[in-house]
Design goal:
heterodimer; A: alpha/beta; TIM Barrel; six-stranded parallel sheet; three-stranded mixed sheet; 53% helix; globular; B: alpha/beta; Methyltransferase, Methionine Synthase (B12-binding Domains), Chain A, domain 1; Rossmann fold; 2 domains; 9 helices
């Protein structure tokens, strides 16, 4: 984004106000004055909730991440391979759903052609390791970094990702393991350039270039949908994605069992590696939020959930660097939206330790009344209509559940109504029931 | 006084317990005795997990230590011991879902509590559950799932057992990720368990061992 001239001199609050202003006035031509009016009302609803003020009513984030594919009567496989079908499905949902406070574009529906081209090994997807009619992709965890390579990661994470991680997790980039170190400071580029002539490395680069073009074709479809949504008055609450350093290392590099044992066997290395990732993670999100215009950074959390570690382990290994990443985002005027997957009830007292009204906590399994009691004065909370009810219940049941949530959480502001997690299929009227409940019971 | 083998293993003191294992083998201790002590230590680990003193990292680590000890002891094993089990339990993650963390914890907790566990792994086709239940005549089946797609896969599994005419011979529990009592009703299972301790409780209740 075009930042104001004295950006670096602004306080975090001032930076956030600038970002809110930009979020309120996106760089699009609204389809009608009414669309513009509704857009501003909707964004204001979220901004007030974040600031722990009372908006006109409780805002809703529809738990419909990949739902439009089902709604449009197509399959996940089809929309992953066919960008026109992807666009059509999301626009159909957007045009037919009715009033909604925000709209999630298809940016997380990955282009399967690219995944095929590069032989991506970290996921299975419909038609590739999963049945053709599978409703979602799935993550394949592995130990892509053996414990003895911690020092290599810590010394130079970018080099490590390029020469060790990518060759192992992406078949087409296997030849990059032949490269010599990529961060060069000796100052004679000729020595460095020559190696790219190796036939295998050339082939890998060729695949990279072709995959990039394919990515762009997909991105064009995604951008078109996002733009159409803004023009129609539906805000995005997606300004980028980030996570906790513990998860980055656990999910991608060491695996669940691997990182758990590292806590016992090599805690110092694990700490050093997580510290190393903090500024890198912050930088990544600042860039994407600048590009998107929305200041909310979605942060799905995995391995710090209740049961997955003790509160002591959470305080020692998970929270410190996670908090640092969030603080880095907050200092740049961004709003972290951690999605606390699993059960975060044991962590409530710990995660309270953040500046007031700086975060939106989205809880999956949680006694929301308790969350409101512990966190209510400190942070906006969001949640948590069970997916089971959204998928198998009736609209009346959904509405009733929402009513109880609103009664427990909405008082004084600082609450966003949403699902415990996102649904892939089910009655669209169950989603509409959430909007109805917010209007009927959530007016301030 | 130095800690005994069972405490060392239960307290996850890797270096010390491996050293002691080697020492015991050198001193001519029976391999089976060492394995029996390991089992007792795992029981302690299970109890600490159930009591909220240990969490998944400790389970994973203790499993790794047990693996190392078993590797050391194996060459000295002359005969296998007959272990008495409470009962058989078949578990698995339902078709289409490849998550196994919760599944393996349930496996661990049922095992340390004396059950003979048949763990069918992840993405288990309906047919495989039916076959295994016929083959083992296990009175308890545990279905695991993390994703919402597991709702239907669980229902399909239960219905296949009905169609095979063996549904009445077993109790079925479900658990994991997005599961809850609503899903239990939808899938027509007998109970939902919120964690591995619940799985042990339910299995014990159903076989009449409280």
């Amino acid at each position: 984004m075009d930042k104001v001239k004295n950006w670096s001199e602004l306080t975090p609050e001032q930076k956030r106000e600038e970002r809110f202003k930009r979020w309120l006035s996106p760089d699009v031509k609204f389809s009608s004055p009414r669309a513009e009016k509704l857009y501003k009302e909707r964004v204001t609803r979220f901004i007030k909730a974040i600031k722990l003020e009372e908006p006109d009513r409780v805002p809703v984030m529809l738990p419909a991440a990949s739902y439009p594919a089902y709604y449009a009567g197509t399959t996940m496989k089809k929309v992953m391979y066919d960008y026109a079908a992807l666009k059509k499905a999301w626009l159909k949902f957007m045009n037919e759903f009715g009033d909604m406070d925000s709209f999630g574009g298809p940016g997380l529906i990955l282009p399967a052609k690219v995944l095929d081209m590069i032989d991506y090994k970290l996921q299975k997807w419909p038609g590739h390791g999963l049945a053709d009619d599978a409703p979602t992709h799935q993550f394949i965890e592995g130990e892509y970094m053996p414990p003895e390579e911690y020092d290599d990661l810590i010394r130079d994470p970018a080099d490590y990702m390029m020469r060790y991680f990518l060759p192992r997790s992406v078949g087409a980039f296997a030849p990059f393991s032949k490269l010599s170190p990529l961060t060069i400071f000796v100052g004679i580029p000729i020595w460095y350039i020559g190696q790219f002539g190796d036939p295998d490395i050339r082939k890998a680069q060729q695949t990279l270039l072709e995959a990039a073009l394919e990515c762009n074709r997909w991105a064009a479809a995604v951008t078109e949908v996002s733009r159409a949504a803004l023009e129609a008055g539906f805000p995005s609450i997606w300004g980028g994605m980030n996570g906790a350093p513990y998860d980055m290392i656990g999910d991608m590099l060491r695996g669940t069992a691997g990182i758990m044992m590292d806590m016992f066997r090599r805690p110092d290395k694990l700490h050093k590696a997580m510290d190393r990732l903090v500024p890198i993670a912050i930088n990544e999100s600042v860039r994407s939020a600048d590009a998107s215009g929305c200041p909310i950074i979605f942060m799905p959390l995995h391995k710090g959930t209740g049961g997955f570690m003790s509160n002591e382990q959470f305080k020692t290994f998970y929270w410190p660097t996670f908090k640092e990443v969030m603080m880095g985002l907050i200092n740049e005027g961004l709003v972290p939206l951690p999605f606390a997957e699993g059960d975060y009830e044991p962590r409530l007292e710990i995660i309270k330790d953040m500046p007031r009204s700086s975060v939106i906590w989205h809880f999956e399994r949680m006694d929301m009344a308790k969350a409101k009691k512990v966190l209510g004065d400190n942070a906006c909370i969001a949640g948590n209509v069970p997916v089971s009810i959204l998928c198998t219940g009736t609209p009346q049941e959904v509405k009733e559940y929402c009513r109880r949530l609103i009664e427990s959480c909405a008082k004084g502001g600082g609450y966003i109504l949403t699902g415990a997690a996102s649904i892939e299929k089910g009655d669209v009227n169950n989603l509409r029931a959430m909007m109805e409940a917010a209007k009927e019971y959530g007016t301030y | 006084m130095p800690k005994d083998f069972i405490s060392l293993l239960a307290d996850l003191e890797e270096e010390e317990v491996i050293k002691l294992t080697k020492k015991r083998l050198e001193a001519g201790d029976e391999a089976l005795t060492i394995l029996e002590d390991s089992r007792k230590a795992m029981e302690v680990v299970g109890k600490r997990f159930a009591g909220g003193q240990y969490f998944i990292p400790e389970l994973v680590y203790s499993g790794e230590l047990l693996k190392q000890i078993t590797e050391l002891v194996k060459p000295h094993l002359v005969q296998s011991g007959d272990t008495k089990h409470l009962s058989k339990v078949v578990i698995g993650t339902v078709a289409g879902d490849i998550h196994d963390i919760g599944l393996n914890i349930v496996d661990f907790m049922l095992s340390v509590n004396g059950f003979e566990v048949y763990n069918l792994g992840v993405d288990v086709p309906v047919k495989k559950f039916v076959e295994k239940m016929k083959e083992t005549s296990a009175p308890v089946l545990g279905l695991s799932g993390f994703l919402t797609l597991a709702f239907d896969a669980m229902k399909d599994t239960v219905e296949a057992l009905e169609a095979a005419g063996i549904r009445g011979k077993m109790k079925i529990m479900i658990g994991g990720g997005q599961m809850d009592d609503e899903v239990r009703k939808y899938a027509k299972a007998d109970a939902y368990g919120k964690d591995a301790m619940a799985a042990v409780f339910l299995a014990k209740k159903w076989i009449g061992d409280n």
